[in-house]
Every structure is written in structure tokens, then in C-alpha cells.
Amino acid sequence: MRLCFYNPHAIGNTMGETVISKLAQIIGTDKKNLKKHNRKHEYLLSFLKENKYNTAIVADGFGTSLGATLSRIKFFRKSYLAYKIVSLVEIYIWCLLNGMNPFGQKIIFSRKKLNEKNDILFSFLSFNEMFLNGRFIEKSIIKIFKGKKILHATHYYGSTEKIAENAKKAGVRHMVAEADLKKSQYFNNFFEFIEDVYLLPNVLREKYKKTKDFKKRKNVCLALGTLVINDLDEEMNRAHCDFFKTDTLHPMRKEIFENRDNLLGIIDCNINFHNKKRLEITNQSRFYKRYNIFRIFYDLFFLSEGKEYHSMDIVDKYNQYKIFVAPEENIGLPSINFSEGMACGCAYIGLEHPMYADLGMINGENYIAYNGTLEDLKDKIAYYQRNQEELSEIAENGYVFAINRFSQSLVMDDFWTYLKKLTNKK
């Protein structure tokens, strides 16, 4: 069995460094803060870097991190050759940016070099311009290849109808995500053709540790996460907003943020209103809203969103509190914060939902479940503020659970075992 990463250089800023993220760091909004943002899937690079796994990179010229920009330039939109040249040069740059010798990696440019019985193509559904472009899909290796194909479904809420349509055209029948999305009504509404979703949890990085005694922490709930309010007029948000009748992916984050002044003594709100400045510019400037190419360059080089939030010492922040909440996405996916905070010895409050039960988390033992309303959240916090021994035990159990369940070796080995079984599946 061989795991083939399909156009990995094209998937935005989630699996290692890309050309577009490096440009933002050097000459754009991150030039004063070269610290990497939290790339939660960067551990997947270890499959390529470690000799114990049989892997390859597949590049067919239809993927580039510059795709969102190039697709709005007529010359590149009309010329497949020019687009391909950029893409194929970028795959070598991507390897170098992520500490890999491109000439030491197996890079495949032709469908003929793939084995339909033994190879599995793996890519991300979102952060990938290709799945927004039906013409690219028709010419792509991922469609022509008749073997097993897997897409990672993280952040699949953007342009859901279009990416679902193109995933179906590509013949994809398997996905992975941080939760079993077959239990999500929203997912099934668009991806009914997907046969199974493998639960691939986020890997816990070493920096998340307990550094402060539990008794010396604040007996208040910490609320974390980024809040994005969607522009209801944008096509990419329409399916999600229409389905949930809301303008945000994180309704509870929005509710906590809007009521933060009334929650003092119960919840310390550290939720970041991520795109506040972008919404202000959109409402004030017709030029910004109308011309996509100008908007992309402005966002990349001048608009700074969440810099203060992402630059804070989040490990120290977790260690200041006894209990925390990191509200989930309403499409059925958890925040990466929940495992990180638990590894810092902070008790977690999350939804009573299969996304946690499927991982082996138990209400009242290693986390605290609530019913998704602000009132119940407040009641649960108040109860455990009064019952410190119970809270301390849950925090300790959660800590042990997190450092074992989300270790990189376990997550990668389990995923590799699943891939081998999938290869043998008819």
C-alpha cells in the first residue's frame, strides 16, 4: 500500500508552509510576526519524512496555493499551460519550505505511474481551488484515477454545494475528519454519496503541558476560539447560512462574545472576532467588495486578522484556568483547542455529542457535557465552581486521556492501519 498526497502544495496554510503563506510572512501582514500559525495538520508531513511509510507526492498541475489569485486573472484562467507551469514549479518550492529534499521524494506527474490496486490518493477538500473548478476536475488525475481516493473534510462548510459536486465528479467515496461526519445532518445533505468518514483526530503537539498547580488557577471558565461572521451575500457562505439560518460557523462563540460583559465571574471571554475588520471594509468600500483580485491582494499584504490572538502564549493561558470551553462548529466538528487545553490540565466543557463519545470521552469522567445552550453552560460552570474536588478529578482524567489518545504515533499508526484495510476493500 502506498499513500499518495495529491497536490499537497495547494491546500492553503494547513499542512505545512506554502508559497502564499510564506509571502504573507515576508512582505505581508505577518512580516512582524514570523511565528507560524497553528497548522493543525502539519503532522501529516511526517508520513513523507519518515522512512517507515511508503508514500509519494502526486502533482498534475491543477493545484497551487496561489489558485484563488490566479483563477481571477484572465490569462491564467484561460491558459492551462501557464497555470500548470506555476503549479509544477511550486511543488519543488513547497518541499524545500517544509524541510524536504524534493529530489529525495517520489513525485509523480503522470497517471500512468500510479497503481490502482495499491495506491491511495489523499487530499484536502477545502483550501483547494481545484474543487471549486469543474473544468480542472474533468482533467485531473484524481478523477481519472480509478483506485481509492480520500478527502479530508476539515472546514468543508465553504462553498459546500460546489465542492460536494466536484468531489462526486472525482469519484470520491471516502473521507476523513476530526469527527464521524456521517452523523451530521448538514454533511449528509450534500455528501450522501460518501460511504464512510474515518475519524482522524488532531495530533497533540509537545508544547501543550501542565505548568501550574490546579489549586492555584482561576476558578472561572476560559472561553477560546476565533469567531467569524459570514457575509450573507457571499456565494461561498450561502449554503451554510441557509441551512442553519445563522451567519456564523460557531453560534455559541458568538453568543458568549456578545454577552461577555454579563458573564463576568463565570466566563472570561478570550474569543477573537476574527474578521471584524474585513466586514467593516466590505461595508464601507464597494471597490473592495466588487473586485476580487484587489480584495485578495489587500487581504494578503495589508489586512491583519487575529494577529494578537494567535501570538498569545496559549499554553500559559490554559494553565491560568481550571475549566474552559471552546465551542464547536455547527457542521459537526470540534475545535482543536479541546485536546490542547485538556493536555494543559484544564477541565473541558463541550457538547453532549458523538464527536466526543466516539473518541472515548465520557461525561463527568474526563470532560463535562452540556446541552448547547448558554443557560446550561452557565449552570454547569456554577456547579463545578462549587465542587472543586469533582472538577479537579475531571481535569486530571482529561489530561491523562489527551496525552495518550492524541499522541502522534498512535494517530498516525491507526490511520495507516485503516488505509491498509481500505486498500483491501472491494
Shape verdict: globular
Separation of the first and last Cα atoms: 14 Å
Number of domains: 2
What is the strand arrangement across the widest sheet? 3-2-1-4-5-6-7
In angstroms, what is the radius of gyration?
22 Å
Descriptive tags:
21 helices; seven-stranded parallel β-sheet; 14% strand; Rossmann fold; 2 domains; 42% helix; alpha/beta
What do these coordinates show?
The strands form two sheets. The protein has a seven-stranded parallel β-sheet, with helices on one face. It has helices at 19-27, 45-49, 67-70, 74-78, 80-97, 134-139, 141-144, 160-169, 185-190, 235-244, 251-258, 276-284, 286-290, 292-301, 307-311, 314-318, 337-343, 354-357, 374-386, 388-405, 408-424, and strands at residues 2-6, 55-58, 107-108, 119-124, 148-152, 174-177, 196-199, 218-227, 267-273, 321-325, 347-351, 368-370. The chain has 426 residues and is α/β, with parallel strands linked by helices. Helices cover 42% and strands 14% of the residues. The longest helix is centred in the N-terminal third of the chain and has 18 residues, at 80-97. The radius of gyration is 22 Å and the shape is globular. α17 crosses α20. It is built from 21 helices and twelve strands. α8 (160-169) links the parallel β5 and β6. The protein folds into two domains: 2-203 and 408-424, Rossmann fold (3-Layer(aba) Sandwich), CATH 3.40.50; 214-277 and 307-405, Glycogen Phosphorylase B (Rossmann fold, 3-Layer(aba) Sandwich), CATH 3.40.50.
